[in-house]
DNA sequence: TCGTAATGATATGCATAGCGTATCAAAAAC
DNA sequence: GTTTTTGATACGCTATGCATATCATTACGA
């Protein structure tokens, strides 16, 4: 017994006429008669009484009509559900992102596009620092991670979404806050620094260390903090200077001034990271949209 | 998409191994791979991830596994239910019978056999006189009627189950009750009669009338009643004599004596009647059992 | 590091299931 | 009685699904 058999039977049972049913099914009448006959033989009893040029359902046929409709409807439903899920039109997409990412316009824009295009996908955003995204990505608890540049295990793959300049964060009342002209890292390094503690897990700290070490500079850290907002607040209070990606300029706090860095390599990257092999269709679509957004 | 496809997919999803699944299905591995591939193309998304010599389900595949199992189970159930019903192993059987029929051993015996053999058939017995069985039989409200010989419309078909002699029912205190020897109808007709009213609808009245008319006899009816038990009671009270099929001897009432009738044609028939064309399998089985019981 | 085993994918040929055309048989309608 | 309707039957063909042979990739062991 196959679904085709059920479709044929339902057609005959509804039309109560073999030729009309065959026309509706787009086949000719003889094979339809044969299939119904075979079905009756398989079930071991008559489903239809063909008498006096009139076709009628037996009790068994009436029952089978209900059952066959039910089976067909379930099969149809299964196909529809799985098709949508498999095409990435439903299901879920879990994205990890760092604090700084919402400040760039790329992510909010792409998320908006994605939600418009795939409104039935359950989008789950998890704010996690770069380090803390790695394990969930490896274990399949996150589909996509958006993070600052970091050292990744080989099972993860990444590409650059954004490459943005670093800017000095200085107190407007201080000596360095008197101007808006570019500063060199060497100049900045003369000042007391407020920066992330290693426990904050941000990829920015690595970039920070590398940049200064390459120049033989060792800035004096007066305060280690957990998040960028704290950094900016402490700079506002005059505790020291700092160095952050340009997108943090969007955070306006009294007494804080952002100055460009003259060093050409003072840049930070935002990465899109994912486990290497089996990307879900939802993740593929998201990445596709991100790439299109970058291309603009 | 066919049920076969679903069976194949379930096998692969359960084994997570194409070759083992193919072995379980009794086919070779290549066609299995092809069918799964075709299924994935039809649904428009991957159901399985074949990676690193390991097969795993995607989210869509996990959903489809549940759905496919459900569809297959429903199809299986439909097949089982309808098969039983179509084979006459379940469903119902509606039998009409007259008052006198339970007195013969044939019907109780056959019913017992039928219930043993087809315990899941809902057997509905309706006590109805011969006339009142005809309409339900014609309209499909009864499958089988068991009745005394009657004139039937051509849409009904019948055969004889029992042919039994008639016996005289006489009062033990009366002149005719003094002996057990055979009586002729002519002798009996000299006595006042207790018999069925036409409203009782029994086929016995027809037979009664025919028998006496053929002999030019017109017995004097002193009382018309509705049922055989009343006849016997009234005979017991001395109101008159009567004529009933032999099986009524099973009703023992004080002061009633049954005497054989010497006329060879003084016989009554019990018929099994049914609508001509589409007998339900349940009715066919019942008739089969009755015929076997008669053959013994 | 290289060879070997395991495993799914691909290529190709064949058998059969299912379809179409032609025709029959029975019954109803005129 | 003739014609029409309609499901069943006969028969040939095609396409689907299967088997055999082989390939490609990867993991594993020496």
Automatic annotation (TrEMBL), chains A, B:
The keyword Transcription regulation applies. Pfam families: HTH_1, LysR_substrate. The keyword Transcription regulation applies. Residues 1-58 form the HTH lysR-type domain. Keywords: DNA-binding, Transcription, Transcription regulation. Belongs to the LysR transcriptional regulatory family. This is LysR family transcriptional regulator.
């Amino acid at each position: 017994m196959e679904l085709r058999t059920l479709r044929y039977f339902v057609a005959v049972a509804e039309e109560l006429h073999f030729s009309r049913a065959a026309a509706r099914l787009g086949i000719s009448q003889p094979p339809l008669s044969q299939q119904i006959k075979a079905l009756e033989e398989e079930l071991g009893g008559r489903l239809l009484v063909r008498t006096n040029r009139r076709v009628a359902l037996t009790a068994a046929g009436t029952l089978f009509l209900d059952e066959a409709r039910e089976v067909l409807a379930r099969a149809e439903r299964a196909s529809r559900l799985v098709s949508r899920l498999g095409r990435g039109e439903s299901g879920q997409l879990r994205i990890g992102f760092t604090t700084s990412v919402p400040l760039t316009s790329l992510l909010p824009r792409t998320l908006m596009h994605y939600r418009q295009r795939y409104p039935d996908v359950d989008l789950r955003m998890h704010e996690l620092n770069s380090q803390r995204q790695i394990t969930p990505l490896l274990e399949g608890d996150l589909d996509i991670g958006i993070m600052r540049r970091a050292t990744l295990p080989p099972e993860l793959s990444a590409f650059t979404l954004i490459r943005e300049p670093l800017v000095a964060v200085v107190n407007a009342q201080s000596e360095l806050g008197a101007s808006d002209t570019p500063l060199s890292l060497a100049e900045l390094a003369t000042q007391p620094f407020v920066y992330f503690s290693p426990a904050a897990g941000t990829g920015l700290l690595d970039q920070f260390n590398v940049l200064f070490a390459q120049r033989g500079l060792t800035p004096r850290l007066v305060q280690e903090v957990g998040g960028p907002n704290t950094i900016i607040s402490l700079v506002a209070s005059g505790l020291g200077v700092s160095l952050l990606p340009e997108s943090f300029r969007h955070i306006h706090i009294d007494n804080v001034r952002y100055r460009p860095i003259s060093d050409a390599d003072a840049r930070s990257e935002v990465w899109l990271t994912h486990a290497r092999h089996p990307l879900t269709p939802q993740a593929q679509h998201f990445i596709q949209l991100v790439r299109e957004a970058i291309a603009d």
